[in-house]
Design brief:
Blueprint: E1 3-9, H1 37-46, E2 53-59, H2 63-73, E3 79-83, H3 89-104, E4 110-115, E5 119-120, H4 123-138, E6 142-147, E7 158-164, E8 170-176, H5 181-190, E9 193-203, H6 204-214, H7 216-227, E10 230-232, E11 235-237, H8 240-244, H9 251-256, E12 262-267, E13 271-272, H10 277-282, E14 292-294, E15 297-300, E16 306-308, E17 314-317, E18 322-326, E19 331-335, H11 342-351, E20 362-365, E21 368-375, E22 379-386, E23 394-396, E24 400-408, E25 411-415, E26 418-422, E27 427-430, E28 436-439, E29 446-454, E30 463-466
Parallel strand pairs: 1-2, 1-4, 2-3, 3-11, 6-12, 14-16, 15-17, 16-18
Antiparallel strand pairs: 4-9, 5-13, 6-9, 7-8, 7-9, 8-12, 10-11, 18-19, 20-21, 21-22, 22-29, 23-30, 24-27, 24-29, 25-26, 25-28
Helix pairs in contact: 1-2, 3-6, 3-7, 6-7
Length: 472
C-alpha cells in the first residue's frame, strides 16, 4: 500500500498575533529554528521510511507561499490541494484521502495526517510511533496519536484510553473536551488520559467509508467538489460551490468520536502544538529569572516574562509575567495568564476592519513581497522585492501614477509599447492609465522603491491584462 504524509496547512494561528496573521499564519513562520513549522513537518514526515510521498492541503490564499516553502525544503509534494474556504479538518482530510487514492492508483492507500504547525523534539521517537501507526492503519484501524502528558494542561483536549489493542496501541474509550484545572490534575494522576494531538493515520478507503457512514453530508460535498477538480499551475483546485456546501466539522467530532475502529498510540516525543505565546516561551532559553528574550530584547529586574523583538530594540524594566511581542506595525503586551485569549484581540481588530488582523506591513506575493514604508491620503511609499526570474502582472491603474527607483538588482520595465532595463540608482515614471509590467531578469533579488500618488491608492485599483499566476 502506498503511504502519503498529509500536511494540513489551513490554520490561521490567531493566538500568535501579531506575528501570525491570516495572510501569513504561524505554520509559514520560522518561529522555532531556521525553517518554518511547515518545512519542519515536511522533513519529519518524509523521514519515516514507510512514507512514499507528501500531500499538502492548504488555504488557497497561501498557495504560492506554501509551494515556495515546500520547494525550498527539498520535499516537493505530489499535490497541493486548495480549500476554497475553511471547513475544518474532516473535509480537509477527505480531500486528502481522495487525492491520495488518485496519486497511488489504489483505494486503500494510507495517509499519515499531520498538522503543519506542531513542534516535535524527539524525531526518533516520532518516527517509531509513525511506523507503528502506519502498520495499524494498513490493518484497517483509524489511528490517533495521544501525547503522554507532562503537566495538567487545560489548553488541550484529552483522549481516555480503553483496553489494550495490538502493537502497543489502546482502544479509544472517549475524547474529552479541554478540562478545567481540577479535571486536568485528575487526568494526570489517573494515568489513563493523553493529550489529543490532532495527528492520525488510516487507509483512505476506511476513512471515507466512516465519513460517509457518520457524516454523509460532508462526504457527499467533498466527493462532488473533488470530482470536478482541475489543475491550476502546480495546484489542485476543487469545485468551489460544492465545497462551500460542506458542513464545517473537525475530524474528532465527525469520525473519531463515533467510529468503532479507533485506536490510540501513545506518543512521548517532546510534542508542542505551539498554540500560544506561552507555548513558544516554553521552548526558549530562559535566564535565571525565568525570562525568555528573542531578537534585540533586554530585560532588567524582570521575572517570568517573554519579549520578542523583530526590527528594533525592545526593553523591559521591572515587569512580571508579561508577554511582549513587537512587529513593525503592531505591538502586543499581555498578562502571561491571558495567552489563550490573544485571539480576542484579533476578533476586535476584525470588528473594526483593521488591516493588522489580516496582513503584515510586509505582504508576500508569488513574485516576491512589498512593504509599506509611508502612507498618506494622496501618496504611498513602498519597498518592493522581486525574486530572480519572476515578474508582476501586466496591469494598469485608474487612480494612481507610480515612480520607480531601483536600489538593487536589475529591472526590466514594460510601459505601454516600450521595454527597457533599469539598474541601481536609475528610475522611471509610470503615468496614470499606462499599461506596465515589472520583471527581474537577473540572478539577484530586485529591490525597488515605489512612490504612488493619486486620488485612490487601494490594492483593488489593479486591472490585470496578463498574469503568470492565474490572477488575470
Amino acid at each position: 500500500m502506498t503511504v502519503h504524509g498529509v500536511l494540513l496547512s489551513g490554520g490561521s494561528g490567531t493566538r500568535l498575533w501579531p506575528l501570525s496573521r491570516a495572510a501569513y499564519p504561524k505554520q509559514l513562520l520560522p518561529l522555532l529554528g531556521e525553517t518554518s513549522l511547515l518545512q519542519q513537518t515536511a522533513a519529519r514526515s518524509a523521514a519515516i521510511p514507510a512514507v512514499d510521498g507528501l500531500l499538502v492541503v492548504c488555504n488557497e490564499e497561501h498557495r504560492f507561499m506554501v509551494g515556495e516553502q515546500m520547494q525550498q525544503s527539498g520535499h516537493r509534494p505530489g499535490a497541493i490541494v486548495l480549500e476554497p474556504a475553511p471547513r475544518n479538518t474532516a473535509p480537509a482530510v477527505a480531500l486528502a484521502a481522495l487525492q491520495s487514492q488518485i496519486l497511488a492508483g489504489e483505494a486503500d492507500s494510507v495517509i499519515l495526517v499531520l498538522p503543519s504547525d506542531h513542534l516535535i523534539r524527539d524525531e526518533v521517537a516520532f518516527t517509531e510511533a509513525g511506523e507503528r501507526a502506519i502498520e495499524l492503519a494498513r490493518r484497517g484501524h483509524l489511528v490517533t496519536f495521544g501525547v503522554v502528558p507532562t503537566s495538567p494542561e487545560t489548553g488541550y483536549g484529552y483522549i481516555e484510553r480503553g483496553a489494550p489493542s495490538e502493537r502497543g496501541a489502546w482502544e479509544v474509550l472517549r475524547f474529552v473536551e479541554k478540562p478545567d484545572h481540577v479535571k486536568a490534575n485528575e487526568f494526570l494522576a489517573a494515568g489513563t488520559h493523553t493529550w489529543n494531538s490532532g495527528m492520525f493515520a488510516f487507509r483512505s478507503d476506511v476513512y471515507l467509508e466512516e465519513l460517509a457512514k457518520h457524516r454523509p453530508a460532508i462526504h457527499e460535498a467533498c466527493r462532488r467538489s473533488f470530482e470536478a477538480r482541475y489543475s491550476d499551475l502546480d495546484f489542485t483546485r476543487v469545485e468551489e460551490e460544492a465545497f462551500l456546501d460542506c458542513p464545517s466539522e473537525s475530524i474528532d467530532y465527525a469520525v473519531m468520536e463515533v467510529t468503532d475502529r479507533a485506536v490510540m498510540i501513545p506518543l512521548d516525543a517532546g510534542w508542542n502544538d505551539i498554540g500560544s505565546w506561552t507555548a513558544v516561551m516554553s521552548e526558549g532559553a530562559a535566564d535565571e529569572s525565568g525570562n525568555v528574550a528573542e531578537g534585540d530584547a533586554i530585560l532588567i529586574d524582570s521575572e517570568r516574562s517573554y519579549v520578542r523583538a523583530s526590527d528594533r530594540l525592545v526593553t523591559a524594566l521591572g515587569v512580571r509575567d508579561l508577554l511582549v511581542v513587537d512587529t513593525p506595525d503592531a505591538l502586543l503586551v499581555a498578562d502571561h495568564t491571558r495567552a489563550q485569549d490573544v485571539k480576542t484581540i484579533v476578533a476586535e481588530l476584525q470588528q473594526r476592519s483593521r488591516p493588522e488582523a489580516e496582513i503584515h506591513s510586509r505582504v508576500y506575493r508569488p513574485w516576491g513581497s512589498y512593504e509599506t514604508i509611508e502612507l498618506s491620503d494622496r501618496y504611498q511609499v513602498k519597498r518592493i522585492v522581486v525574486n530572480p526570474g519572476e515578474r508582476l502582472s501586466l496591469q494598469m491603474h485608474h487612480h494612481r501614477a507610480e515612480h520607480w527607483i531601483v536600489v538593487g538588482g536589475t529591472a526590466l520595465v514594460t510601459r505601454d509599447d516600450e521595454t527597457f532595463q533599469l539598474t541601481e540608482n536609475e528610475s522611471t515614471f509610470i503615468p496614470l492609465g499606462a499599461r506596465h509590467r515589472l520583471e527581474n531578469p537577473g540572478k539577484l533579488p530586485l529591490e525597488m522603491i515605489e512612490v504612488q500618488s493619486g486620488s485612490y491608492l487601494g490594492e483593488d485599483d489593479i486591472v490585470r491584462f496578463e498574469d503568470g499566476y492565474g490572477r488575470a
